[in-house]
Amino acid sequence: MKGSKSAFAAGRYFKYAVGEIFLVVIGILIALSINNWNTKRQQQIELKGYLEKIASNMEQDITLAEEYAIKRDSSNQLCSQAVKSLLGEEPNLGLVMRAASSVIMEFYFVADKSGFEALKTSGYIGKLKDARLDSLLSKYYFTLEKLEREEISYNTFIESMEASWLKETSLLPIMSALDIQNGGINDPEAFIKTLENNRDIILARPIEAVIVRGSSETLPQAYYRELIQIGSAFIEEVKQLN
Fold this sequence. Notes:
Distance between the termini: 67 Å
Structural class: mainly alpha
Helix content: over 70%
Number of helices: 9
Number of domains: 1
């Protein structure tokens, strides 16, 4: 009987020990599960913070892109009118000067990439599971790269033509008719006569080249509008994140 009781007690103790171990294991698994959930939740909160920063950057970019698109459209139209005038027998020198000035005033679109750079540095970019956001993010910065390359090409050409023009031309006769301090014209009639007396300066080949390029250059505007479209879509997606 004693042996039977000992075996029974041992069996009960063994079951109790197994039960205790089982409970400990379950407790550990639950703790790990909660910890993993908290970690993922914290990562999602931090990732959302980076995305909201990028969206904020894009809002500023969009404002600048809208402004530059309008200015470049205006310059493009002015240059197109100037090209038609240059093809005529008596070019409108005032129009030619305005067109050339609109192109020589270079624009470099400088986007705010601080949020995107912070996201890349954080390592969270690989945790972006939203395919739509990931696609928009890639498209936006790829378009931005294309815009930057196009602006460098365009502005480098303009700078080259401007340097060539100024190398062989003195602008003093024309500048003398301007109110440089106030950014206006002292005497409109005198200014027109000055332009007529300096036709060779205004109708120089580099100026023609600048105007022709300005009349046909539409890629920057296309990229500005693409950035506006993609950026606006990204901002809306971020707003809808939980």
